[in-house]
Model the fold of this input.
Amino acid sequence: MTTPDPAGFGRFPTLGDYSTALQHPQLCFPDDADLRTARVTGDVLLGPMASSGNFGGVYHLVSESGQREWGVKCFTRASDIRPERYRSICARLADVDPDTDRWYVPVQFLPEGIRVGENRWPVTKMTWIRAPGLIDWIDQNVHNSTYLRKLASDFTDVVLRLEELGIAHGDLQHGNVLVSAGRRVRLVDYDAMYVPDLAGAARPEGGHRHYQHPRAVDLFGPRMDRFPARVIQLSLLALAHDPDLWTELREPEDERLLLGMGDFADPNTSEAFDVLSHSSDFRVLGLVARLLQDLDSDPDDIPPLARLRPDAPLSGRGQAAQTRPVPASTPPPPPSPPSPPFPPVPPAFGTEATGVRRDERRTTSTNGGDRPVPARTNTPQPVQRLPTPSRPSGTDDTAPARPGPAPVPRAPAKRAAPEIPGKKAAERAARRQKGVLVLTAVIALAMVAFVLIGVLAPAAIPDVLCKPLPYACARAGSPTPSSTP
Done:
């Protein structure tokens, strides 16, 4: 039995080779008592099935009693630094208590964990968590704003806890974030993790393309989770405020949340940044401004997430009222009279189902009147980047630095049209008029029929009808008078 040279790229087994070996766990796991007696889940005909990921696939194994489960990752690409990396990672995580730090899922690295043919290969053994991934969880709870805000808060606490421990996950993305009972975040797949013992080492992988800073390819350190964490935090809070964004800004098959690689590469032409920058939630606006500044900053200089405060105001108008500075020495000016309202304008042909065209929205101005908002063209306009001054450590960096005018309310997609005044009354009048016309036509047709019968078949008209219909009876042919006897 030999252990192959880890530097031998391309020599690792394929997932098909692993699936064949895993049909007999007692043979391929000779040194692990748990896995040797476990069964591998999979298809009845195809055998063991793996969920593919970076550098390999994960197999699901269940103990004989069914009380314990594991995820075993088998690698398909070699890395000469993987054994040393995992020794450092496991040594650092040994001090983490999973009962206290519930984000942590216990993991072991087995350098010669599985036997395939005549060789042994490394695997990781991690406790299996029965919990949906982030995208599946959002699909089920996208209309529950309370759950979304609770998850955003717990996710923020987890990211800040990792920084307290001096570690970083390295690949924060929807596939590595599970949501267990109670909206608790669990993190899996520690292949790209940073721990202090790995300071100065090269980054083993770049992370998911839809969550990484465009210039963070080589960033490897305790701050590399900040940008992807802010992307996830912003998406959760934006969905809590407007769940329609889940279908408006993404397709069901998209491997991302609300933002992705294209938005980060050119935010000035990004539809997602354009839509989010019109949110009426000031917390969302603050995160959008912060994320745009992050894109202009060096990835290593991005500030940490701010802990979410449950009592933070969500309404843009309420937040602006609280943060608007008023000089102490100058009394506030008297309120100006409200502007006269705009006269009602009938909807134009081709307006949207919401009753307001998206390019003809209006917002309330500071003096209480209405002011028109410039039309939005099909081509996304450049997003204004709000300056945010530096703040002392521990302050909430999600709030905007300076209050601005009330944000433009964006017409939510796929919502029922507002009811037009008098619409039901007009429909009832139209139905009554139609009924009268139909009844008049029926009576006229009946009269014509009687006249025709009186002309063509006078004997068919009973005498009893001659009194109410003298005209018909009069037109009927008179009988030939009999000869005088």
